[in-house]
Prior knowledge:
This protein is α/β, with parallel strands linked by helices and about 260 residues long. About 55% of the residues lie in helices and about 15% in strands. The strands form 2 sheets. The chain has a 4-stranded mixed sheet with strand order 1-2-3-6, with helices on one face. Strand 2 (about 25-35), helix 1 and strand 3 (about 60-65) form a beta-alpha-beta unit.
Amino acid sequence: MVRDAEIPKRYADKLVEVHRLSGDKAIVICHIEVQNDGESNFGARMYSYNYRLRDRYSCPVVSLAILTDDSRQWRPHGFQDELWGCSTKFRFPIVKLLDYEQDWSTLEASRNPFAVVTMAQLKTKETHNQPLARKDWRYRLTTMLYEQGYGEQDILELHNFWDWLMDLPEELERQFQIELKAFEEARQMKYVTTIERMAEERGERSILLRQLNRKFGALDDRTLDRINVLAIEQLESLGEALLDFGSIEDLTTWLDNQG
């Protein structure tokens, strides 16, 4: 968020500018932090993000935490400090995804996309080291989108997210694609062609990243982000250009020229 931050991590997960429904012209910065593991100084970090954002933008800042960890007890809600009569007290709302396990039927009935995202997150945690069960749940959640009438673009975007979240071994991934294709053909749908293309892109990207890591070492997050948004044609071009790269600067220059 700011270059002079002293804490090691200084990148907010999501920073959203929203306007109030009351008609007021005031701008509110909504800072959303998604936390996957328990962290002893999480409250202090949330406070640091909040006051740095307020200092930078000079407007109200709302900090919200989405906790995706698997501990029912860990529920950070604020930060406070006091010395010699000078005190600081900061509180922030949290959403604990584990709490939704007790209301699974409501999630299944909901048409809110965040409901199915929450279901996928919960089943990803539940099926850790259970790849077959994870495949079954991924198939069930994906076909549920069709049955609930989600549009093609929504299905493809959620499928792409679940492909990353609910990762499967190569053989089970193939089985999943076969089962999904059969499901679509029975309902005369065409999304599977796009999904197969996405799978092709993922394979091409994975091979390319391995080659780059082998040649230049671990890539930084910014470079990875730039490669991850390349289309299949660009990935193929990068694979050819890579043969002539002599340094990481050559890769950066190539990416800069992609527009």
